[in-house]
Amino acid sequence: MKPAVLHPLSVAPLALALAAALPLSARADDAKTLDRLIVTATRTPISVDDALAAVEVIDRAQIDASGAHSLPELLRGRAGITLVNQGGLGKLSTLFMRGTESDHTLVLVDGVRIGSPTSGLASLQDIPLALIDHIEIVRGPRSSLYGADAIGGVIQIFTRRGEGQGEQARARIAAGSHGLREASAGVDLRGARGGVGVDMAYQRTDGINACSGFYDPLTWQGAGCFIVPGTHLDRDGYRNRSASLRADFAPADGWQLDAHAFRAEGHNDYDGDYVDNSDIVQQTVGGSVRWSPSDTVQLKLAAGRNTDDSDNYIGNTFANRYTTTRDSASLQGDIGVAKGQLLSVGFDWLRDAANVVDPWSPFARTRGNRALFAQYQGDFGAHDLQLSLRRDDNDQFGSHTTGTLAWGMMLPAGWRVSASHGTAFKAPTFNELYYPGFSNPLLRPEVARSSELELARSGAGWQVQANAYQTRVRDLIAYDAALGKPGNLDSARIRGLELTGEWQLDDWTARGQLGWLQTRNESAGAHHGKALPRRPGRSARLTLERRLGDVTVGVTGIAEAARWDDVANTLRVGGYGTLDARVSWRFSPGWTLQANMVNALDKRYETSAWYNQPGREYTLSLRWQPD
User: Fold this and answer.
1) Dihedral angle, C-alpha 38, 69, 204, 186, nearest 10 °
2) Is 442 helix (H, G, I), strand (E, B) or coil?
């Protein structure tokens, strides 16, 4: 492993400055991998091949080629990831990383922590793909670097930003099934010492009928979204308007200033008897100052705010409003203590706030967290070492210490083996603690420990990797039927195996990902030995592409086994397999016409019981981006 001195917030905006920021010990034999740097795994830039963690990078070229309409659609079926969607584009989408809970994955946008302190979820469905440059996925615990929430892993989203000097522009329009309309455009202006840019996007769909559940008013019993029979049979549409702004400037050698903002406003229709449509706002604002007095020393100060707002209605009548903010700041110093050795120390500050306006159950709460962390990365020839330790001080739950130890070794014939062990924790959400009538203020944080073994090999145009892991979680928060509210009822054991590979030869590209997962509820009582809900035991994703001159064709197959939708393992959701096909034609320099067919076999399936998924869908798009 050849660590470099840089904080995540300075990497995405400053591809050119990145090489200059690398210590001399990291430059010599990493030049060939500079375009495959990842920062999320260590909070410093290292190459994907050197990361002592299971990582994946989805770049802009892959996003364009996929033809996906949403972030959940792009992530679906990837190694370690299960997506549960409630009714198509724009509807609630929850992500389960390596079998952990849906609020056990930390999500960052340009280094700023996002997510609702009330639900604990990041609204992935509301982050437009048109504004994303690339995505970094790190599977496995990262609380020793990021604190709470990172039990299953971390996903960091980097918004689009130009590289090099001069003017760079782009635009795209698309139309498709279910009244889909999309349009986006962006421009960057860059000079020798910095630049500015803006991207804007619009997306709208008439949607599908999201839910097939039912409710019997005579027996007061139902299933799914508890729909009164004969109502809510209409389509549930979605609309999203978004924009991102950025600016960076180097006033002098060794100094770098960066600012960025992202905002999405949307309207979502869904099926329900108490609320059935929402106006949503997702906003992230951040900035940083970086000082690099030498090639081996860097100091970085960064701050940001995430806003997650939702105004909810039943028809045109106001029902309630959820307004939440997450303010964060960090100070990090990176010191190259010797050739191939990097020491990082830092301080993180976080403040969560929620204000719920509801005629029946209003509440307002805030919570702060302060943390000190340290990390050591060392390269000792055939051996790599990473040690990290963090101490969090939470206003409500006191102190928590987490750590990670990872080691890797190069073997003969190009193989590399690595092993790691890490601990993590998750604080209860505001809804679990304070929501009137349905909360428990005595809840304790969830804690976890994970071990992992990895074997990998790469060559010219190919790479394969296998990761086996086990995670144990104590004090899992679940609904306690005896109390009628959440409780620390459960403990769980999760075991898994991931196989990933990529192969490129001439005009052919193939990417494959296979996953096996075994979850076990180890809590005492009736659910002992049951599988955790909504986690399929097997999953696969295979993509095959071929370039034929100016034409590129591709197919992607995704399959997931059956899973249970409830803790008692009585409600079964069947397995499924889908096939997507696409063809793109670069008919003129800078111009690409692309046609996509999603779910080409028109498979009927669900990822959450009672919630429908779209059948066969078509999209035609036109993209302009000069070389």
Assistant:
1) 40
2) coil
Bridge partners of residue 135, in order along the sequence: 58, 157
Which of helix, strand or coil describes residue 201? Answer: strand
Q: Please, are residues 478 and 522 in contact by the beta-carbon 8 Å criterion? A: no
Residues 6+ apart with CB under 8 A from 485: 438, 439, 440, 479
Other beta carbons less than 10 A from residue 82's beta carbon:
24
DSSP E strands: which ranges in 295-362? Answer: 297-314, 317-338, 341-357
Contact call for residues 609 and 623 (beta carbons, < 8 A): no
Cβ 3 vs Cβ 46: under 8 Å? yes
Stated as kind and residue range, the H or E segment containing 200 is strand 194-208
Q: Name the phi and psi angles at 126, rounded to 5.
A: -100, 5
Q: Which 3 state secondary structure label does DSSP give 88?
A: coil
Q: Among residues 302, 264, 266, which one has the least CA distance to residue 283?
A: 264
- CB within 8 Å of 35: residues ≥ 6 apart: none
Q: Which residues lie closer than 8 Å to 482 by C-beta, 6 or more apart? A: none
d(CA 499, CA 514): 5
HSE toward the beta carbon, residue 585, CA cutoff 13 A: 4
Answer yes or no: are the C-beta atoms of 481 and 447 closer than 8 Å.
no
Residue matched to tokens 């197919």: 555
For the chain of 627 residues, list the mean pLDDT of each consecutive stretch of 10: 43 34 34 65 94 96 95 96 95 96 96 95 96 97 96 97 90 98 97 95 96 69 62 85 97 96 96 88 97 96 97 94 97 96 98 94 94 97 97 94 97 93 95 88 94 94 96 88 77 96 95 97 89 95 97 98 92 96 97 98 94 96 93
Output b/e per residue, 243-273; b: 16+ Cβ within 10 A. bbbbbbebeeeeebbbebbbbbbbbbbbbbe
In degrees, rounded to 5, the angle at the alpha carbon of residue 277 between the alpha carbons of residues 131 and 310 is 60
Report, in this order, helix, strand and coil percent for the chain, each rounded to 5. 10, 60, 30
Query: Measuring CA to CA, which residue among 291, 321, 320, 324 is closest to residue 307?
Result: 324
399 within 8 A of 46, measured Cβ to Cβ: no
Residue 254 in 3-state DSSP?
A: coil
Using DSSP, state whether 171 is helix, strand or coil. strand
* Cα-to-chain-centroid distance, residue 178: 27
In the prediction, which pLDDT does 32 show? 36
Given a contact cutoff of 8 angstroms between Cβ atoms, the answer to whether 42 and 55 are in contact is: no
> Taking the CB of residue 450, how many other CB atoms lie within 10 A of it?
23
Euclidean distance between the first and the last CA atom of the chain, given in angstroms as a whole number: 34
The two structure tokens encoding residue 253: 């050698």
Q: What does the angle CA 31 – CA 33 – CA 38 come to, to the nearest 5 degrees?
A: 125
